[in-house]
Amino acid sequence: MQNNGYLRIKEIAAMTLLLVGIKLSDSTPALLAQKAQNGFWLIPLLSFICIFPGFLIMLYLLKKYQDKNLIELMEAITGKWIGKGIGIVIFLFALLTITFDSRNYIEQIGLLYFPKSPTIVLFFIFIGIVFFGAKKGIEVIGETSWLFLTVIKISASLVILLSLGEVVMQRVFPIFGSGITNILTEGVKKASLFAELFFLLIAYKVTKASSMFSKGIVIASFITLFEITLFYFVYITVFDYNSIAKIAFPFHDLTQFINLGNFFTNIETLFMVFWLFAAFLKFIIFIYLATWIFGEIFAIRNFEPLLLPFSFLVIMIGQLPFNSIINELILREMLLTIMSPFFIILPYVLWGIAWGKGELK
């Protein structure tokens, strides 16, 4: 069942921080470093500048067209069938993002902690847990996100603090890495690093007042940008870009560097626990939102029974890439590049149509 409008600012902020912010601990830095070299830490900032004004326009339009979510808004502005067509594209983007990202996480879990376990077994266990979490509904998901957010962020902050002794500031130079043109180009092409913000708009009506949703997601967006940029900066000053481009999972490598003295070694296991919590919550939120988008497109009010087939579909599609290199450097790179112009342009097109129809007065 859809929500009854009980979530508050803190739950919306927590869901946003977990859904978008966990990019600080996946293989995204290695992807960005391939072309930007040691200037890759600037790409999230440029991507945010490209995509966030359009996101604010979407929030403005949702406020103008009261009592509508993302799909309903597009149908109201462009007409029923065009709106549904755009909705299907957004749903496919969401589904493919979940698929490629989950494969990425399965590779991390397998290579780092369960090297002898078959990928398909890890996939079924991981997505199985995600499915049962998503079945609890958006209100429980929001409350759980807020409940675990504090310990997850404390563990991430601890990683930063303990790694400061390994930082070598000279490694950040030259600041623009492979060149300012490359940095700017990659910043635009990777604007969809923040595409999850648009997927969250399907839940626009989950709060008692729309202003609560807007405040929660906007505040969390800036916190997320700060966190991602900070972690990427630490990665480049600890490892330098030659290493980053070759290290698939810099967050986990960073935890190998740090310790709490001679009596507290191998503390990366502790960070793994909190990282796993964050990963599960990210995909619980994500698969629920994607299924909700599908339900809105086809007017399926009770869409939660679809969580099971979509979870199975994620596993099946996620098995298609032969290895993590194809998944990350080819398929995910291609998806990000395709999604970026779509999400940059869409808000302005919708605003232009609404303004032309005289509905923004």
UniProtKB/TrEMBL annotation:
Pfam families: Spore_permease. It is found in: Membrane. It is a multi-pass membrane protein. GO terms for cellular component: membrane. GO terms for biological process: spore germination. Belongs to the amino acid-polyamine-organocation (APC) superfamily. Spore germination protein (SGP) (TC 2.A.3.9) family. PANTHER family: SPORE GERMINATION PROTEIN A2. This is Spore germination protein (Amino acid permease).
